[in-house]
Design goal:
about 325 residues; FAD/NAD(P)-binding domain; D-Amino Acid Oxidase, Chain A, domain 2; 2 domains; FAD-binding domain-containing protein; oxidoreductase; FAD-bd; MOase; FAD binding
């Protein structure tokens, strides 16, 4: 879906399809599934690290890029704190309309009255929707019951018939929920994001609330920037004799990781801060914040998603 006069588009891509597309570009055997990292430690002297997986496997590596999600073991090893709760809960789902959903290529958004919700098409037959709110103590258990979650969401959508239709069409096994957490943006001001040949990317680096719809996009930005920084580090002094030691190569990669961390520091700060503020303002039902949202910040909030997304992370390779 495009926005007239802006030169920007919003596309909703199902995560499963994106992952499958990236997997097809990798050599067979590159991905090892069901291999959760339990802990890690340094292996004696030098650059080596030991990764302990939950199946008992131990992997030794000299360079490590942690993409292990919001509960990242690698981020903790670097020195980053655990993500903190936003006290909000999000429900997401996909509805399939075999004969076509009939919705235009538009993002439908509903904010205020204590919740934030919306839906948009993935294709002609599939609609993605979301709903977030701050649950009461009694409502927190809803996250474990898809049937009650769906019923609760439907009960809040009296003034949003289009979204209510989409949620009503969603099968229970396509309803997911999760508490929303984020990394304190102040960590990006004073903490190191790379350490001894180790760095993090994706949710391991910048867990954020989903109010900008940029979580997956941010991870792709990370990957492009990271690939470029490592390539530049390895290409420097490319005329160096082929007998360069492993230690010298690791040192150059470490410099590349440090450059990557520097490039992504303030972008990550921007993501997390903007997402948190946008979610709080749009979900609020307080008198003052409602006035500010609807009368003062309406245009700003409407364009925030596009403004954040309009970022050039550079090309993957440099020559």
């Amino acid at each position: 879906m495009s926005f007239a006069g802006t030169g920007h588009e919003i596309r909703c891509v199902q995560r499963k399809l994106l992952l499958e597309a990236m997997e097809r570009e990798l050599p067979n055997g590159s991905i090892r599934y069901s291999s959760k990292v339990v802990t890690m430690e340094e292996s004696g002297s030098g650059y080596s690290k030991l990764l302990y997986l939950d199946d008992g496997t131990i992997i030794k590596t000299k360079v490590l890029i942690g993409c292990d999600g919001v509960n990242s073991v690698v981020a903790k090893w670097i020195g980053l704190n655990e993500a903190v709760t936003s006290c909000r809960l999000a429900v997401r789902g996909t509805a399939t309309f075999p004969e076509g959903h009939g919705f235009a290529s538009k993002l439908f958004m509903f904010a205020g009255n204590g919740f934030r919700a919306g839906c948009l098409p993935c294709n002609d037959k599939t609609m993605y929707w979301f709903f977030s709110w701050t649950p009461s103590i009694q409502e927190k258990d809803l996250q474990y019951n898809p049937s009650k979650l769906k019923e609760y969401v439907l009960s809040k959508l009296h003034n949003a018939p289009n979204l209510k239709k989409v949620v009503g069409k969603t099968e229970l096994d396509c309803v997911m929920s999760s508490p929303l957490r984020y990394r304190s943006p102040w960590e990006f001001v004073w903490k190191s994001l790379a350490k001894g040949g180790v760095c993090v990317a994706g949710d391991a680096l910048h867990p954020m609330t989903p109010d900008l719809g940029q979580g997956g996009c941010a991870a792709l930005e990370d990957s492009v920037t990271l690939g470029r920084c490592i390539a530049e580090a390895l290409n420097k002094n490319s005329t160096v004799e082929n007998n360069e030691t492993d230690e010298e190569e690791c040192r150059r990669i470490e410099l590349g990781l440090s450059k990557y961390a520097k490039e992504r520091r303030w972008r990550s700060f921007q993501f997390i801060t903007a997402a948190y503020l946008a979610g709080r303002l749009q979900q609020s039902q307080g008198t003052i914040t409602t006035f500010l949202r609807d009368r003062v910040l309406a245009n700003f909030l409407a364009g925030l998603l596009l403004k954040i997304a309009a970022f050039d992370c550079g090309k993957l390779t440099s020559k």
